Structure formats: structure tokens, C-alpha cells
From TrEMBL:
Record keywords: Cell membrane, Membrane, Oxidoreductase, Transmembrane, Transmembrane helix
Classification lineage: Bacteria, Bacillati, Bacillota, Clostridia, Eubacteriales
Transmembrane segments: 6-25, 32-52, 75-95, 107-125, 160-183, 203-228, 240-263, 275-293, 302-320, 332-350, 370-387, 407-429, 450-467
NADH-Ubiquinone oxidoreductase (complex I) chain 5 N-terminal domain segment(s): 66-108
Name of protein: Monovalent cation/H+ antiporter subunit D family protein
Amino acid sequence: MKNSIILLPVIFPFIASILVLYFKFNEKSRNVFTGITTVLNFIFVVTVFNYFEGDRIHLIKFNEFLDIYFKVDKLTMLFALLVSVLWIFTTVYAMEYMKHEGKEDRFFTFFLATLGVTLGIAFAGNLITLYLFYELLTLATFPLVIHSDTKEALKSGRKYLIYSFGGATLVLFGMIILFTQAGDLSFIPKGIITNLNRDNMNLYSISFIAMFIGFGVKAALVPFHSWLPKAMVAPTPVSSLLHAVAVVKSGVFALTRTTYYVYGAEFIRSIESKKYLTIFIVISILMGSFLALHQQNLKKRLAYSTISQLGYILLGIVLLNKNAFVGAMLHLINHAVIKITLFFCVGAIMYTRHKTEISQIKGIGREMPLTLGCFAISSISLIGIPPTNGFVSKWFLALGGLGEGKVLFPVILLVSALLTSMYLLPIITEAFFAKDSINLHVMKEAPKKMLIPIVCITVITIILGLFPNPVLTFIQEIANELM
């Protein structure tokens, strides 16, 4: 079948992961094989986008509930392209970084499997398919989280499993209620609930809240966020994927699908519980920033920052207007490229200087100017200073808030931006302007395999800020289908 090519981006990484585990390549062969796999998979994603948009393929169908199938639409491609591009850079980075972590075969086995699972979420054609891959994502990433096998790593891994499976249970509960009422779990623009029956409104509302909270666990929605900072015991390439692409963004993607392709904006506007969800989201934005301010460990500061920034995206989703949706999807992309760069830079500091605390990096910007320069550019972008990509997405989020007649939301965004500057700029000033510990005779950048991805993604960040229109136009086309 011609449509079976749609399965290629999902299945190919799984096959590659098995081959890595089975053949036990030497280091060079494994790195070449892994690199080729991620590049080829990107080509497969682009090919599917160009030739199969609007197509679908059913994998297994037991009944109307258990119908596993994949489809290609614009939202699929937005997420799949983001994942497949950033995975290439993470692969190159991990080739060098994982040398001092050990157990590289195990790492790359689950690393490639996670790529396949994440793209399975992207290509899912209905809620049950997304749910199955969502569960697989927890299983695929768990060995990456506990990679060091230390007591702390195992404890963090258990917490990750408990939170993830707890959230997934809520999702399953919501799905069953929804199916009993609607008889369908397909992803359709504007949702599957066309005729609102007031007698069933409470059941629909319960199912939506259960799924929003369930998917919100992986999206680090407060108060279900504490697994994320704990997962920082994982190697930096894993932290980068957790925070930028695979796990948290899968949660956000699932919430977008649920909100706009299952229930629809019209239904969500009609339920009272939306305002309570908004309160939790606002708390996530502010609380994440405040907690980040009190962290002296570099990775933990970035981890709490992620909680706040994900709140921006969730806010854009629940505001239910075009500008807010555009801002949310732009920030999904912009935060991914910014945060993965920040984590790569911190990982480079840890790898070359063995420094993990902010107090330890005085003057390191002069020793590693390129790495810390990229960190500075990414930090400014995350704050949202014009003309960076972070400013573009936050601008549309602010317009979305004003479009709902809520001046409070733009104010919250401004306060959060101020807090973001308060926890990121001190790192830059400490690195470049502190006089202590500067030793210009030991200038040493990160190895090339780590530095090249850092510089390349920083360039992408700059381009997205200066030339946002291609991505912006694409997202606006998605918004027009949904509202």
C-alpha cells in the first residue's frame, strides 16, 4: 500500500534501536549508524509531509474504540518536523557527551526508540492511538532518566513513573467517559462534539478535565510538576529532550489535540471549569519562575524555568482564540529551540569544567566565549526581548489575552518575563563580568560535536526571530481550520 510509507518515520527508529542493541557496534560505527538513522528519519518525515498530507493508514482495528491508525495533517507535521530536526542535533551532541556517562549502547537504544514513540504521538490519528504511544513514551524514556543507576536516579525514576502512569490513568478514565457519550475518538478539526446535549454536559466536562489534568502531568502543570526537576539526574542530552521536545512537548501536543480536535473550541467555551484550569496555568507560569529564582544548580534552574514557559503554551491553548493559539504553537517551537540550546550549553560547562552551580562559573564566559555567547542569545530570546523569537510568540499570546478582554494575562506575561530575566541574566553576568577565577590561559571551548549543535540551534533561534513569517503563516493556517 502506498499509504504505508506514513508508518516509516515511526517504525524506522524502532528497527534501528534494535539493531544498535543486537549488533553491539564499536563507538565509531554506532555513532555513524545513529547519525544516519536520525537524518534519514528527518527525510522520511519531509517526504510524508510533501506527498501524503491528508492521508491515513489503519494499523489495527478491533472495534470502534480500539482503532489504531495514523494520519497526516498540518499539526502533525509541525510537531514531527520539530522533533526530527532537534533529534539530529541531540544525536551529534550525545555522541561526545555520553563518553563520560558510559553505557552508551543502552543509551542510544532507548534514545532511538524514544524518537519513534514521539513521532508515533505526532502521527496518531485518534485519541486511543495517541494514548498508547503516550504510555510507551514513559516506558522508553524511563531507562534514560535512570541512566546513571544511582540511588538518586532510581528514586527520581520511580517518581517519574508514578506521575506519568497516574496522569495516563486519568486520561484513560476521560477517554472511556467520552467514548460512551460520543462513540468516537477521532481527531477532527473543531472537534467531534457537534450537537451539544445539555443532559450530557457534565459527563463531557468531567472527561475533558480528567484528560486535561492527565496530559497536563507530562506538561508539568502545577501541582503535578515535581517529577520534572527530579528528572535532572539524567544525562544532559536526556534533560534536553525531556524539556525541549520529547516528554513535555508531547504533553502539550496531546492537550492541543484534545482541546481542538476532540472537544473543539465551541464546547470548551461552554463549560465553567475552563476558568479553574486557567488559574492552575497562571500559577504554573508564576510559580515556575519564582522557584527558578531560588535554584543555584544550573540544570535545576532551567528545569523550573521549563514549568513556567510551558504555562505560556497552556495559556494560549485555553484562551481559545486565533492569536492565542498562534502564540502557543509558536512558543512550542521557540521554547524548544531555546531550551535545548540552554541545556546543551550547561552540559558543555559540566563536561569541560565539571561545574554545576552558578557560584562556580565566575569568568567562564571568557574561557568559553562561544558556548556562553550562545547561552546569552538564548537567554535573551527566552526573556522575549525584541526582535527575538521569544518576543514574537509572547506578542501573540498577549494579543490573545487582550482578545478575550483580559488585561491581566498580558500583565502576567510581563511579570513572568521580568522574573525570567532575574534568573537568567545573573548567569550571564557571572560568566562574563565576574573577576574571580578568570584564567585566559585555559581557554577551552566544548568539543566540536557538542559545540556545532549549540551554534547551529542558536542560529535557528535568531532566524526564527528575524524571519518568523514562514512558520507564522503555517500556524495561522492551522488556526483557521480550528476556529
